[in-house]
Amino acid sequence: MEVQWLGHATALVELGGMRVLTDPVLGRRIGPLVRVADPVDPAAVARIDAVLLSHLHADHAQPASIRRLGSPAVIAPRGSSRWLRRHGIVNVRELRRGQELEVQGVRITAVAATHDGRRRPLGPSADALGYLIRDHGRGAYFAGDTDLFAGMADLDGEVDLALLPVSGWGRTLGPGHLDPARAARAAALIAPRVAIPIHWGTFALPRPLRGKPAGAAPALEFMHRVAREAPSVEVRVLQPGERTRLAPLDQIPATASSLPPSIASRRAR
User: Fold this and answer.
1) What is the distance between the alpha carbons of residues 214 and 191, in angstroms, rounded to a whole number?
2) Which residue has the higher pLDDT, 50 or 264?
3) CATH 3.60.15.10 for the 2-258 domain, yes or no
């Protein structure tokens, strides 16, 4: 399994020979927000087999970005296909919580998320989802946008890699989001082998907001909290555009579980 974080909630997960892209937002702007991270490398989003949309908020569902990908299967929450088709995206497959489908031998399961999925101000309402991507005993969890909830513990034992949001772009985070402390508790509930913090350091208002954590501060706080609350979970902090690889369990040294979390670890590269 390999993952490349492209910024915000956009990540390329390569598993079972399939390239899955989460919540593609590839442009330089989202309304008033500007991209402060490096631009997305076009090679990273070539030959995409499936797109996972967690919900329809503008910083997660950007039709122009999806159209750039050609015609991959777009997996989205129930109630979103009509809006997507109106924006030129036709290969849409809807899922409800608990439903799953198979794409090229890889199973994709829609799981719960605690977040308001309405496309504001006048767009449709569709439940927010997370996704579990599985192939031959390996699993990746993409949380999308969510708050902490007890049902995350149901993923314990299913997940090798967890992509967990830890921040946002505003001065504060409203309900339905994870900050570094709640994301660390989520990591403790899910107990993945590796957790990668996402949803930070990519978009911002043109003038920084007073009191907003700068740079990688939310991701580093998450890393330190996980080291205390879930020491068996390895945290890898990636910069937008960076890639990492998870080695199969039988290739990991017996002492690897005792290694401390590290920034942008390349232990298994």
Assistant:
1) 28
2) 50
3) yes
